[in-house]
Amino acid sequence: MVVPTFNEQDNVAPLVREILASLPRGTLVFEILYVDDGSTDDTLAVLHALKAKVPELRIIRHSVNAGQSAAIRTGVRAARGEWIATLDGDGQNDPADIARLCTERDRSPPEVKLFAGWRTQRRDSRSKRWASKWANALRGRLLRDDTPDTGCGMKLFERAAYLDLPAFDHMHRFLPALMQRAGWRTASVPVNHRPRTRGASKYNNLDRALVGISDLLGVAWLIKRAKFPAAEELG
Fold first, then answer.
1. Closest CA to 114 of 145, 156, 72, 76
2. Can you give the pTM of this predicted structure?
3. DSSP assignment string, 74-109
4. Mean pLDDT in runs of 10 for the chain (235 residues)?
5. CATH number of 2-225
């Protein structure tokens, strides 16, 4: 489990407890890797207090806030598992859905390297739902990634395949398209979504729109320029 977090002091302990309940000890080998992305509240102190009680918990801290994509990549690089599950640190993703993603992986062909959560019933404000709907429609039309929801933090992917992707800020919003560009298949899996009950959102619709357009054009360029010919070793 890789959980990027920024100023979520009130969400850390409840979410860790939920993760432990969804991945019970003794039935699965796992680690919970929290990446504190330069928090300025008591997030780090809460994590250290939990560490004494939760041996599966690992903590990495960015000295400055670098963004969600950088935090996810830091966590994936430090992780020791072959498969990585991610979820947001705000508590809106339901850790119980991890098992659903794993079940979908186990019955899928090996060329499927990414299982993306699909929030079929968003628990956000009307303006945020509208903005996401517009952004997903535009992205889908331009990138043709056949993914209804790329903004969901709940994902399961193969670590090696992820680390082979080009890294850039906000790349986490384009993982299905980037995986497909690399020659892999992806799948969308319906997951639960919950309203935020503690803390405050770190994004607004204008910020997402301004960076999203330039990122979208950049990913479209990457896809257009991709060349991955088949190769075989002859001796």
1. 156
2. 0.87
3. HHHHH--SSEEEE--TTS-B-TTHHHHHHHHHHTS-
4. 97 96 83 97 97 96 96 98 96 94 97 96 68 68 86 96 95 94 96 85 55 79 83 82
5. 3.90.550.10
